């Protein structure tokens, strides 16, 4: 494969061609200097849904059930709440097999039975409806269905009797998922729908009935995908009570008012009481003809009328379902048929019961809103009432009922970390499969796409599943990751060529590097370390791998020796029982500088004759200060206490006093578990119980480290790498068998500084917008003063001293719960263990034991940035991405070293200076297996409107020549989900105090016909999505 570099001449040619605006230039051009190995055909892309021009016009809301004017319309919404893994595994829930109590519907599961029998019931009466959300299961059901059944399904969908809601692979958690993973998992579902179910199935309605709180970012994603409405099931009790009393359970949610304005508006409905049918009316638990018994129907209608009093319009949505309900759909439907017909025939003519769907309900509510607006507009200006619905600006987190649902932010940090690592690999794998043009990669990459999508389910990444299911999720991820390991190894081998392949073993990941275990680096005398940076900017990455004590030589691409250091493996890591006993006691570390979208390899050689280990410094002066420092930062520790005491940022010339320690909370009166965190009102107890922390110091040319030992459960290494502006806190926390008199324990890392942030701190929403949090801001129940101030820290948390213009930011390497409980402090919860179940359905304590059955140990990192508010803005964004989407590292053993220069070469896939610094290449993905020229690209702006940075401005780039291996020859912009032409989605124009939701979701400069060089302008926090056709340049694919 030959690297292709663009020359200035081609740019001149490209610009000349724009001037004549030849839309089909890309496919018809002559005399262009590139030779394309494949040529796409012109014409519109067949893969974008049209909402307007469907042959029989059945996609519109016209197919909704008719309602009656002037009466109270009850929309019965039959549904089954499905979990893609929870008490049983993903597979077991589909087939209905597996261990568990079959008398209990939660165990019975059986999604295929539910779908099969429900579809048969729908056929029997043309009024019946049903909604379904999980495309992971629907896709499998479809695959296993006969053509006849498929035809029936399509017919039901066309008639809007079977309605897809959400449209994603799973019903994603909203608290701690990352925005890119949310978008990806919906895109996967949309792709299935597009390919098999057709335009009418392509949903624009969110059905988030079981998530433990709701984030503004997830809702914003729905708005940007063109959704009209979102239905949520769980908001805090105090909020709900207030809303009920004010008829305020429906609102227009401005999900990202500060960045996207009214484009982010989304009508949001809070269900009256979760997603179950009203109490006593789970109809498959009743007998046939239940409503014909005296009083039953009357009581049902009374229940409904009581509910209706809390909503503003003449419509009421009633979820008619349960967890894995519709095992016996005949009973559900026969009874509902009865209720409908008996009501019609009865005396209560002011009630109209109908089968309906969430989107039809929203549509009818919208009609009432329009009528209200019309009435207001006919009044003189001063006499008008405000819009029918209130405006919501913040989010629905945390979720507080009689317990506080903030434990799952941290629960099972091992799975959470595993998901992030798999996400990093997926990103690399997708890109390299495309850049290399290798055949036969699609299905292997797809296995990991599928697994990552499943992990976004609200009982997966949350950690709220049974132990056996946890093991199954981890297995799914590992198996899928191995497929991408093969893909990436194939890519590297292809790039390096036959001569190299003879000299090497197959490149592999070391998935257990977190516990400093890696066969290749520990056993091979010579090996390659290969880094792929899938980010669109250069990164400086500290690499670290276990090695036997010896003298090492590390070479870069120019065969130059680079600085390295061999340091002892931290004691905490060495004591992790999952780490093989014979593992190497030392680690080799060096800095890798990797350009954007490029592969860089390093050669490591060892001289086993010379045993070389760096011993810790001898510390003798009591009370002395210990300082570790690099070009950017200096960290001072008190030798007596062993604790951090201050941090100085040299460039910004600022210094703060700051301490860091580990502490734990014990639950109050109520039992804890996977979902809930129930700290009492007492502050956390220090893990070291007042004892000093034992420390060791190691200094070298690559890294300076302070090793701290707090007690038998907690150790930490604080590191400053060469040239890094971030301090690294590498914690190892485990066992936690502290005090069995409590039902559980929650361990936190606490940073306490002299910064004055008042009560304000900021946490990210699914990794995107930063949300301003105010301590004790909502109606706080005194017992919940600690737990109730916890928020999801999916990727970062910061506090600001506005007067001094200083910002302190912390980044976890997986989602965690976090807060600022006292002025100047920030804390992140790192680990939890409980001996009880919290009684919320999991029916198991959160008590993972690890391989020695003593209590599992987790290890992870926090990164700290202390800088001015101005300098923090872009640095924070980049660090958040570099942490969640860290470059991928592979290790290759060298069998014989003759000439390795092809393997050490740097391979660049991005043309230099094409992507501005404030833009992130979020998605580069293939869409269809049989069309290698069709790709999905998403670009996003990094900064928010209120970020203080010189790069806080719009950026323009050209798609055409971004990448070295191929040119983009045609491009079409879509909505965020990649499935709609933005011009063809007509949204409902919800009215709020902040304005009217625009009818079209497209960006103001949207172009129906894009012409080369396909310029794209990104404003603050915009994500723009394109379906493009590419043509590989000469030499590609290899
Ligand atoms: Zn659920």
TrEMBL record:
One of its GO terms (cellular component) is lysosome. Its EC number is 3.2.1.-. It catalyses: Hydrolysis of terminal, non-reducing alpha-D-mannose residues in alpha-D-mannosides. GO terms for biological process: mannose metabolic process. The keyword Protein biosynthesis does not apply. InterPro entries: Gal_mutarotase_sf_dom, GH38_C, Glyco_hydro/deAcase_b/a-brl, Glyco_hydro_38_C, Glyco_hydro_38_cen, Glyco_hydro_38_cen_sf, Glyco_hydro_38_N, Glyco_hydro_38_N_sf. The keyword Transport does not apply. Keywords: Disulfide bond, Glycoprotein, Glycosidase, Hydrolase, Metal-binding, Zinc. Its cofactor is Zn(2+). Binds 1 zinc ion per subunit. It is an enzyme of class 3 (hydrolase). One of its GO terms (molecular function) is carbohydrate binding. Residues 403-477 form the Glycoside hydrolase family 38 central domain. It comes from the Eukaryota. Belongs to the glycosyl hydrolase 38 family. This is Alpha-mannosidase. It comes from Plakobranchus ocellatus. The lineage of its organism: Eukaryota, Metazoa, Spiralia, Lophotrochozoa, Mollusca.
């Amino acid at each position: 494969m030959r690297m292709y570099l663009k020359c200035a001449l081609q740019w001149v040619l490209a610009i000349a061609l724009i001037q004549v605006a030849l839309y089909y230039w890309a496919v018809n051009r002559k005399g262009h200097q590139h030779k394309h190995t494949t040529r796409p055909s012109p014409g519109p892309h067949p893969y974008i849904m049209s909402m307007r021009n469907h042959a029989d016009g059945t996609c519109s809301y016209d197919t909704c059930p008719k309602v009656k004017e002037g009466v109270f319309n009850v929309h019965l919404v039959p549904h089954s709440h499905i979990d893609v893994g929870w008490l049983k595994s993903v597979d077991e829930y589909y087939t209905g097999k597996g261990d568990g109590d079959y008398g209990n519907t939660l165990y019975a599961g059986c999604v295929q039975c539910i779908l099969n029998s429900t579809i048969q019931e729908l056929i029997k009466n043309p009024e019946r409806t049903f909604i379904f959300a999980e495309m992971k299961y629907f896709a499998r059901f479809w695959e296993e269905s006969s053509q006849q059944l498929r035809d029936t399904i399509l017919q039901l969908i066309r008639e809007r009797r079977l309605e897809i809601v959400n449209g994603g692979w799973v019903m994603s958690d909203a608290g701690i998922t990352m925005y890119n993973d949310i978008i990806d998992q919906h895109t996967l579902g949309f792709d299935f729908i597009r390919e098999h179910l057709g335009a009418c199935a392509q949903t624009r309605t969110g059905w988030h009935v079981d998530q433990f709180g709701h984030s503004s970012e997830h809702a914003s994603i729905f708005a940007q995908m063109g959704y009209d409405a979102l239905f949520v099931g769980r908001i805090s009790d105090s909020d709900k009570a207030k809303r009920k009393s004010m008829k305020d359970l429906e609102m227009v949610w401005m999900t990202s008012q500060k960045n996207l304005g009214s484009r982010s508006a989304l009508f949001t409905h809070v269900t009256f009481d979760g997603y179950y049918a009203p109490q006593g009316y789970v109809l498959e638990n009743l007998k046939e003809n239940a409503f014909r018994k005296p009083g039953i129907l009357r009581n049902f209608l009374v229940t409904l009328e009581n509910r209706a009093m809390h909503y503003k319009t003449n419509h009421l949505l009633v979820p008619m379902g349960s967890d894995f309900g519709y095992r016996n759909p005949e009973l559900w439907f026969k009874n509902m048929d009865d209720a409908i017909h008996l009501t019609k025939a009865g005396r209560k003519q002011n009630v109209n019961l109908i089968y309906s769907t969430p989107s039809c309900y929203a549509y009818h509510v919208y009609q009432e809103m329009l009528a209200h607006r019309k009435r207001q507009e006919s009044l003189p200006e001063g006499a008008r009432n405000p819009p029918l619905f209130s405006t919501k600006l913040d989010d629905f987190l945390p979720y507080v009922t009689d317990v506080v649902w903030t434990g799952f932010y941290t629960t099972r940090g091992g799975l959470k970390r595993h998901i992030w690592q798999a996400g990093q690999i997926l990103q690399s794998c997708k890109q390299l499969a495309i850049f290399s043009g290798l055949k036969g990669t699609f299905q292997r990459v797809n296995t990991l796409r599928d697994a990552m999508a499943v992990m976004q389910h609200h009982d997966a990444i949350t950690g709220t599943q049974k132990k056996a299911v946890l093991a199954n999720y981890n297995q799914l991820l590992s198996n899928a990751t191995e497929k991408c390991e093969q893909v990436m190894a194939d890519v590297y081998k292809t790039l390096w060529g036959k001569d190299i392949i003879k000299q090497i073993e197959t490149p592999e990941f070391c998935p257990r590097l977190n516990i400093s275990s890696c066969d290749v680096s520990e056993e091979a005398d010579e090996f390659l370390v290969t880094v792929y940076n899938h980010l669109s900017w250069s990164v400086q990455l500290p690499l670290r791998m276990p090695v036997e004590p010896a003298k090492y030589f590390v070479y870069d691409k120019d065969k130059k020796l680079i600085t390295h250091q061999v340091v002892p493996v931290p004691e905490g890591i060495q004591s992790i029982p999952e780490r093989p006993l014979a593992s190497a006691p030392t680690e080799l570390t060096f800095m890798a500088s990797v350009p954007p979208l490029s592969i860089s390899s390093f050669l490591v050689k060892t001289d086993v004759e010379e045993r070389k280990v760096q011993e810790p410094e001898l510390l003798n002066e009591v009370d002395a200060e210990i300082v570790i420092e690099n070009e950017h930062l200096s960290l001072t520790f008190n030798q007596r206490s062993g604790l951090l005491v201050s941090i100085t940022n040299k460039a910004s010339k600022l210094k703060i006093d700051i301490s860091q320690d580990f502490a734990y909370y014990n639950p109050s009166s109520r039992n804890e578990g996977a979902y809930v965190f129930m700290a009492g009102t007492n502050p956390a107890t220090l893990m070291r119980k007042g004892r000093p922390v034992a420390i060791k110091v190691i200094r070298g040319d690559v890294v300076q480290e302070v090793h701290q030992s707090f007690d038998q459960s907690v150790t930490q290494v604080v590191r400053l790498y060469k040239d890094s502006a971030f301090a690294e806190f590498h914690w190892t926390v485990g066992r936690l068998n502290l005090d069995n008199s409590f039902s559980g324990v929650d361990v936190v890392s606490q940073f306490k500084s002299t910064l004055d942030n008042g009560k304000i701190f900021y946490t990210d929403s699914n990794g995107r917008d930063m949300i301003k949090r105010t301590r004790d801001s909502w109606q706080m129940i005194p017992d919940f003063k600690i737990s109730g101030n916890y928020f999801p820290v999916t990727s970062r948390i910061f506090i600001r001293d506005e007067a001094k213009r200083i910002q302190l930011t912390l980044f976890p390497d997986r989602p965690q719960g976090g807060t600022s409980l006292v002025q100047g402090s920030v804390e992140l919860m790192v680990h939890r263990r409980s001996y009880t179940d919290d009684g919320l359905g999991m029916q198991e304590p959160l008590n993972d034991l690890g391989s020695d059955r003593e209590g599992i140990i987790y290890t992870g990192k926090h990164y700290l940035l202390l800088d001015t508010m101005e300098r923090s803005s872009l640095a924070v964004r980049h660090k958040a991405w570099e942490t969640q989407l860290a470059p991928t590292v592979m290790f290759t053993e060298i069998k014989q070293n003759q000439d390795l220069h092809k393997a050490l070469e740097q391979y660049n896939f991005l043309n230099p200076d094409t992507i501005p610094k404030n833009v992130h290449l979020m998605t580069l993905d293939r869409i269809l297996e049989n069309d290698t020229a069709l790709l999905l690209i998403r670009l996003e702006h990094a900064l928010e409107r209120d970020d203080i940075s010189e790069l806080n401005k719009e950026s323009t780039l050209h798609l055409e020549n971004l990448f070295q291996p191929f040119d983009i020859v045609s491009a079409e912009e879509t909505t965020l989900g990649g499935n709609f032409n933005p011009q063809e989605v007509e949204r409902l124009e919800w009215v709020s105090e902040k304005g009217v939701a625009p009818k079209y979701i497209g960006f103001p400069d949207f172009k129906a016909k894009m012409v080369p060089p396909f310029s794209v302008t990104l404003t603050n926090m915009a994500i723009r999505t394109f379906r493009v056709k590419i043509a590989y340049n000469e030499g590609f694919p290899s």
